[in-house]
Structures are given as structure tokens and as C-alpha cells.
Design a protein that fits this description.
738 residues, alpha+beta, two-stranded antiparallel sheet, elongated
Amino acid sequence: MHKKQRYRAESGAVTVFLVVIFASVFAFVSIFIDFTRMAALQTKAEMMAHSASRSVLSSYDPQLVEQYGLFAFGHTDANYIMSKVLQEQMDISKRSDVIPLMNAKLDSSMVELLRPLGTYEVFEQQIREEMKYKAPIDFSIEIINRFKPMSKVMKEASNTVDLLSKLQKLYDQREAKLDEILEKQRAAAQTVTETAAIIPRSGVSAGSSGVGITVSSIAGEYADFAAKYNEDMLREPEKRQYSYEIQMYQSRASGVFSSLERSRQKSSERHAVLLPEARKLLQEVIAINNQMKRTIDEAEKRSVLDGYNEVAAHEGLGNNEAIAADQEIAAIRDQSGSLLLSAELLADLEGDIRQQEADFTSFYAGAGFFLGIESSVLSASISDSSLYSAVDSLDRSTGAYLRKYVAAGSSNVLEDNQRQLEQHRASDQERKSIEHQAETALRDAKGLIGKISALKDKLKDAQKQFDELETLYNDNLEFNQSFSAREVAVMGPGDDPADAGAEAMGGMDIFFGELSHVLQSMTDAAFQGEYAVQYFSLFNIGTLDELLSGGGPGVIDTIGDSFMPGKQEVEYILYGFHNPVGNIAAAYGEIFTLRLAIRTMEGLLKNLNKGNPLLILAAALLYGVEHAVKDMLMLTKEGSIQLSDFMKVKLTYRDHLRIFLLMHGSSEQRLSRMLALIRRNTGVSVEQRATYLKGGVSISMPLWFLPGVAKTLGASGTLKGRVEGSRYYVDKQADFSY
């Protein structure tokens, strides 16, 4: 009995042990089953969120894609699409599940649309995506390949025009100061002629001061005066016979001495002012001459030359046959040193001023010595021979000064200096004449642009449309909170040919600098420029032919529609004028500037034989201006022009605008103008059309085993998702953009 009870007791213990083990294993396996279901729900929820989000973004606006290659969400309710796609996926899943392991339920979904197309960052990115394959190929073939062979010769032309235009201004300033120096020296010397007019005896021609009685006449009458004076001195006062004659002589002699003293003092005062001024001007001349030398020395160190060098050195662009004329233009700069004044000449000019001061001091002392004998003359106490000796001394000192600084002849120092300067200026007269012709040609170019600008007040219908466009533009600026200054387009050439040439070459510097950047990687300016000319309309340049060729009063009615905003979108994007003619005039002016740069390069090569660098520059600018004007007219007739006499390829009006778009670079204002046009042409409010989506989905399923354990794990952060009651919830988010 005892053994049987013990057996039963041991048998019960095993049963309990097995139950405990089984329960533990069951609980452990159950938890893993629910964990597996949770992981499956996580994956399913994420897949559904991504799929639904993509489905929502598939509802893009077809008009934007077709017209501008841009993607933005359309009119459909995004939340409706999201929930509908998710519910359909849930239904499909239920029908396809043989064993409903998860028995999942869609609890909620949400959609948040962000990043409107009208924001700069989004718009720029979509332009890059749209043009990343087209722009590099098209721009390389159609622009870079055409200009690469010109890079070396244009570099030398730009450097030469930049240097010579700077030297021309400095040269003209220096020469004007040299003329002023000589003028001050002459003005000082002329004051001595008044003294010479009181002396006349030696035959030195110095003009007349209007004095009737002279030193020479007083000396000639002195012997008679002295005799009468001495005779009367021997008589009693009441018996003197020559009192009147003596008094008259003394009066005349005193007047001559007084005139001589006044003239001497006036000369001294003028010399004391004019010659120091001349010396100061000479120091300014020396400073300008040194500045010219520094300008020449620094000419080869311009950083803008790097762009030309990088374009010239780049391989693999197809056309590598360069224009072999760069060394000929570089040789012009080598001659620029001939424009400098030698140190010897400048030292001679300074020495001449010092010598004039010394010579005047000698004259002043000589006149002072003569004035010292006045009392002796008036009292007849000087001998006749001594008086004549004093007159001779005064005459010699005065004559010596006048011969060196006033009288015509080979001994005149100032005339000799003038001759030296004239030799240095041998080409100036011809240069000034050519510059005057170039100024006239520049006015002709401005006149062509002026004819376009003059239409502004006559195109009222077009102006109304531009006013509406400006409203859209300002809306986008405000939307992007852009407070940047608006660009100011250059309307056309200035009045000075040298300045116009330097400005034209400066534009070419910018262009080749941008080309060098494009060769390294396409810039936003290049992407946006190529996008603009591909998707927006260009002005029909042939419209200007009738206007510029002198069309009659009815020409406005004929061409008026061509100035509507929709007919000049690229020009508006480029310059941003909200009027019918401003953008066209600006484009036409820049075409002139570009053509001036290229034609001036040709002009340098065609005027090498003129010798003087400034004369070569003037002739090159005249050639450039005249041919640039012809190019402008040819472009309106033919729609294209030859790139250069040395490059027989065509450059269209469209190509010119592509160049200007690159040169002007990218800007927020340009983006706003493009967006304003897109909104105007499509009616799509780009400021409200999203390009980015945040999609959220919440899915739940019932837990089969031990929901309390799952909830505890969720509270500790170990479990992804959340447990509420006996249900497990998964929240997933998927972000997508176009």
C-alpha cells in the first residue's frame, strides 16, 4: 500500500512538471508567433505606404509636363487617392490570403503635400533634372565648339584692348598736363615782354606795351639834359633858362623807371606762381607716366585670362583648329612701351623749369641794377657812357631771356620742348580723327536701339499684358520672400569708343570665364539658359527689319503683335523689363556689344601696320563699331550672321541669347520670371502645386497570444509599433518627390 501511494505521488509530480514545461514552451512559441505576425505587419504596412504614396504622386499635372517638362501634383484629392489605394490593397490581401494569419485592418491614412513648384530650390532642381542630359551635349556642340578656336586670339584681343584703353586715358591726361606746363611757362615768359617794350634798343621783337617813352629814348636825351642841368646849376635860380626842359625830362625819366619797376614786380609775381604750378604739373606727369608703366607691367597678370586658357586647353570638343593670329595681337602690346616718356626727357623738362627760374632771376637782378641808377640819372650825376653801359646790360639780360622763352627761333627752349612733344604725338591728330568717326558710328548704333525704344508708348495692348505678367512675377517674389535688388540690363553702347570697346571685351571675359566653368561641370546658369531657350518663345528678330529700314507710319500696326509677352519670353526672362520694347532693345544692344568685341579683334589684325598702339586701337574700334552695326542689320534680315571673318560658321539670334543667358548668370529674379510665364501660359498656380509628399498609414491586427506581454515589451521600447488592448498597431510614413 505504501509503495502504491508513493508511485502515485511520483506519477503526479511528473505530470505537473510536464504541464509546466509544456506551458512554458507554448507561451514561448506563442510569443514568437505574434512577433512573426508583427514583423509581417510592419513589412506589409511599409510596402503599402510606399505603394500608395507613389500612386498619389502619379496624379501629376499633364499640362506642366507636356509644355515645360515639369512635375507637380494635379487637381485630384490626395487623401482620397491615398485611402482608396490602401483600401484596395487591403481587400486584395484579404482575398489572396488562404489562411488569414494577420487579419489586418486599415485604421487611418494621411497625406501632406509640401515643396511647391514655385519655390526656387524645387524649380532649380527640376530644371537640372530635365536638362542634365540635353544641355551639356547641345551647349558643347552649338556654342563651345564654335568659340573654342577663338579663345586664344580673343584672349590677346581682350588683353590688348583693356591695356590700350587704359593707356589712352592716361596718355591723354598726361599730354594735356604737358601742354599746360608749357602754357604756364609761356605765360610767365610773356610778362617780361612788357619790360622789353620799355627798353627797345637791341631789335628783339617782343610786342608793345603802349609806352611812348622808353629807356633808350631817355638814354638818348640824357646828354642834352645833363648839359642843360649842369649849366643851370651854375646860374642863380631866378636866372636859370632850362627849368622847364629839365623838369619835363625828369618827369619822363621818372615815368620810365616807374614803369620798369611795375613791370619787373608783375613778372616776379607771375613767375612765383606759374613756374611752381608748372613744376607741380610735371610731378603729376611723372606720376601718370609711372602709372602707365605699371599698367603695362600688370597687363599679363589679369585673372580673367584664366577662362580663355582653360577653354583653349580643353580637349575632346571636336573643333580644335584655333585662329593662328594671337601672337600678332600680342605684339601690339609689346609696342605700348613707346607711349612712355623717357626719364631723360622728363628730367630735361624739369631742368628747363629750373633754368627758366634762374634766367628770370638774372633778368630781375639786371633790371634791379638799372633801377638803382634812377637818382643818378635824375640828378645828372652819372656819365653818359655809364648810362649807356647800364642800358646795354639791361637790354642784354632782357634779350637773353626773351630769346630763350619768347622769341621765335631755334634757341627758344619752349619751342624746342614743343617740337619734341609733337614728335612724340605724331599720330595723335590721325587718331583723334578716327576716334571722332568711331563716335559718329557709335551714335548710329545707339540710333538703331533708340528706334526700338521709341515704340514703348505706342504698344498699349502689349503693355497691359506686361502689367499682368509683372503682377504674377511680384507674387512669386513675395512667395519666395526675395528682397534682392532687381537686375539692370545694359541697354546699349556708351559714347566713348574706347570705353565701349573695353566694355565689349569685358563681356567676352565673362563669357569665356563661364565657358570654362561649364567645361568643368554644367552650372545652374547654363542649365537655366538652355532650359529657357528650349521651352520658351523667342522674339522674331526679322520683325525689326522693316522698323530699322525706315518703315512707314503703318509699321506699328504690322509688327505690334510681335511685342506681346508671349512672343519674347526668353528676352523677358533674360532682362526682366515689364514693357514691350525694353527686353528687345536690351538684347539688341548686347548683340552689338558682342559683335563689337569680335569685330574689334578683327580690326586689331587688320590695322597692325599703323605702328602707334593707340592709333591701332582707334582704327580697330572704328572697324569694330562700323562692322558691328552692319552685323546688327544683317541679323534682322537673315536671322543669322557669320561668327567672324576668320570663323566661317553661323551664329543665330537664338545662339546670341544663349550666350547672354550664360553671361548674366543665374538669379532668383530670373527664376521668378520663368515661373510667372509658366503660370500665365498654363493657368497653373505654381506656388500651390506640391512636388513632395509625406504619406502616412496606420494598420492594426488582433494579437492571438499574451497581449499583456506584448504591451509590456512595447512600453519598454523593445517592440516596434504600439499595443492597445488586444490589438497591435503599426504606423508607417513614406516620403516621395518628383
